[in-house]
């Protein structure tokens, strides 16, 4: 069977990253326009807030899927992972901003009461708080400066994913089909990340055993 090739020519790759940023922010810009022109239905604030939250989840899943796609299918899109991660942060930040400014009108007491009434909001806020250092350090200078600490820091994305899944799943009493799909994908990606070190360890074990056997014979 012929292997599916999704490679982008090298000379187009830098431009394609910027195209991804533009395409990724286009849904938010278009929906903001619909809201500004009174085309988002009876409750435009809630509709816009929900829309931004769903796109946060979509970009989070896309970010987490980059490594499995390379390891399982040979699709190397590591170049786009930073852009996908930053788009996740921007949508999460816009989702929070709409909630604070338009939904709660910057009324801290109302926010506290809402959190006490709907605890799932805390998972979303925790996820956003943990996204901030990841977004700030998503640059080459931070990678060089932090070294191995950068890798350790960015593993927090899986805890953020768990917070996002809980926030998304608990935001409604009954999950619809789309929510099942997104939450299921996040769980699958977290489980894959947990299983990967075990798989690598098993791959190394036969080699180690052979080396020990050769050493004992010699």
From TrEMBL:
**Record-linked PANTHER family:** PROTEIN-METHIONINE-SULFOXIDE REDUCTASE HEME-BINDING SUBUNIT MSRQ
Q: Which InterPro entries match?
A: Fe3_Rdtase_TM_dom, MsrQ-like
Sorted alphabetically, the keyword list is: Cell inner membrane, Cell membrane, Electron transport, Flavoprotein, FMN, Heme, Iron, Membrane, Metal-binding, Transmembrane, Transmembrane helix, Transport
Principal place of residence: membrane
Q: Which residues form the signal peptide?
A: none
Q: Where in the cell is it found?
A: Cell inner membrane; Membrane
What lineage does the source organism belong to? Bacteria, Pseudomonadati, Pseudomonadota, Alphaproteobacteria, Hyphomicrobiales
Describe the protein's quaternary organization and the partners it interacts with: Heterodimer of a catalytic subunit (MsrP) and a heme-binding subunit (MsrQ).
Q: Which cofactor does it need?
A: FMN; heme b
Query: Which protein family is named in the record?
Result: Belongs to the MsrQ family.
Q: What is this protein called?
A: Protein-methionine-sulfoxide reductase heme-binding subunit MsrQ
Its biological purpose: Part of the MsrPQ system that repairs oxidized periplasmic proteins containing methionine sulfoxide residues (Met-O), using respiratory chain electrons. Thus protects these proteins from oxidative-stress damage caused by reactive species of oxygen and chlorine generated by the host defense mechanisms. MsrPQ is essential for the maintenance of envelope integrity under bleach stress, rescuing a wide series of structurally unrelated periplasmic proteins from methionine oxidation.
Q: Name one GO cellular component term.
A: plasma membrane
Query: Has keyword Thylakoid?
Result: no
Domain Ferric oxidoreductase as annotated: residue spans:
52-163
Which gene codes for it? msrQ
How does this protein lie in the membrane?
Answer: Multi-pass membrane protein
- Per the annotation, how and in what number is the cofactor bound? Binds 1 FMN per subunit. Binds 1 heme b (iron(II)-protoporphyrin IX) group per subunit.
């Amino acid at each position: 069977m012929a292997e599916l090739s999704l490679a982008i020519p090298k000379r187009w790759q830098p431009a394609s990253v910027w195209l991804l940023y533009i395409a990724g922010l286009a849904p938010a810009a278009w929906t903001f326009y619909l809201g500004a022109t009174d085309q988002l239905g009876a409750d435009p604030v809630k509709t816009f807030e929900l829309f931004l939250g769903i796109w946060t989840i979509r970009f989070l899943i896309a970010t987490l899927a980059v490594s499995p796609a390379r390891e399982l299918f040979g699709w190397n899109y590591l170049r786009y992972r930073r852009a996908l991660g930053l788009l996740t942060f921007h949508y999460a930040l816009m989702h929070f901003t709409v909630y604070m400014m338009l939904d709660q009108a910057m009324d801290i007491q109302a926010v506290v009461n809402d959190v006490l009434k709907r605890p799932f909001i805390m998972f979303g806020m925790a996820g956003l708080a943990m996204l901030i250092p990841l977004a700030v350090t998503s640059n080459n200078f931070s990678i060089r400066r932090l070294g191995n600490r950068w890798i350790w820091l960015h593993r927090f994305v899986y805890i953020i994913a768990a917070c996002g899944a809980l926030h998304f799943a608990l935001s409604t009493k009954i999950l619809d089909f789309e929510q099942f799909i997104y939450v299921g994908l996040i769980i699958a990606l977290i489980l894959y990340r947990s299983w990967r070190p075990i798989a690598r360890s098993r791959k190394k074990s036969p080699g180690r055993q052979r080396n020990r056997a050769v050493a004992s014979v010699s």
